[in-house]
Model the fold of this input.
Amino acid sequence: MNWYTEQWSKDCRFSIAYDKALYSEKSPFQQIDFYQGTEFGTFFTLDGLMMVNEKDEFIYHDMIVHPAFATNPNIKSVLIIGGGDGGTAREVLRYPTVEEVVMVEIDERVFRLCQEYLPLTAKGVEEDNRMNLIFDDGLAYVKNAKNESFDLILVDSTDPISVGEGLFTTAFYKECYRVLKEDGILINQHESPYFSEYATNMKKAHKKIKDIFPITNVYQYHMPTYPSGHWLFGFASKTLDPIKDLKKEAWTDFGLQTKYYNTDLHVGAFNLPNYVREALIRG
Ligand code: SAM
Done:
């Protein structure tokens, strides 16, 4: 048995078993590794950090996509930043209201390799005629995007290190505000509250977004293979509140089968533990 091991904090490591290493490459942006896992199926890592595996990807991809559609069931134009494995696009493309999806992934190799090794998330995404796939830096893309051109922006990024750093800056969040429509929604990777390095990232990201958007919330999901298993997304909007504006019936009418998300869980997810609430308020 082989073990893939990741350092979660100074004093904590996480390991999962794999049968064989499938592929390894250093792209111009990052180290990419694919493994054939035992319990977790095929998984891939970027710069030695777990990105996606076949067993728990549904949790992440349900939660990055569906809460926004249950708050505004009339989303037509979507911008995905990052998301090279295709899982976020896969979930967005399930909505018949969606007319256009622009996905801006900095590293084409992630997308191409996921098509080969991770069809569960990547298959069919490129073929959908609503998809506009761009291989570029997300920050550069939003700087040049038109005012009020998207209903939804989903930031499906790596952590705020290396290529992902620009996606956690005030400059980026300001551009997101500008390119979102009046009832637009921004969902962004909000890190994790538990280990201190991630909690610091969480607080910094939240403060920056709070200074720009009038409505900001944070919601949680449980991801077994991400550090501590307790992860967050940020929800920001100019006008929509994810609880007051939740449209349970409209979302149920879509008839989507989801393995993690439901509209009762939606309400629970925005109700954070006290230590997380306090950390977000204190900053
Ligand atoms: N689910 C994962 C997680 O949170 O661990 C994230 C998915 S992973 C596919 C994130 C993607 O963001 C990577 O493919 C990476 O190349 C891309 N990315 C990082 N920085 C980016 C940037 N500045 N612009 C566009 N894509 C970026």
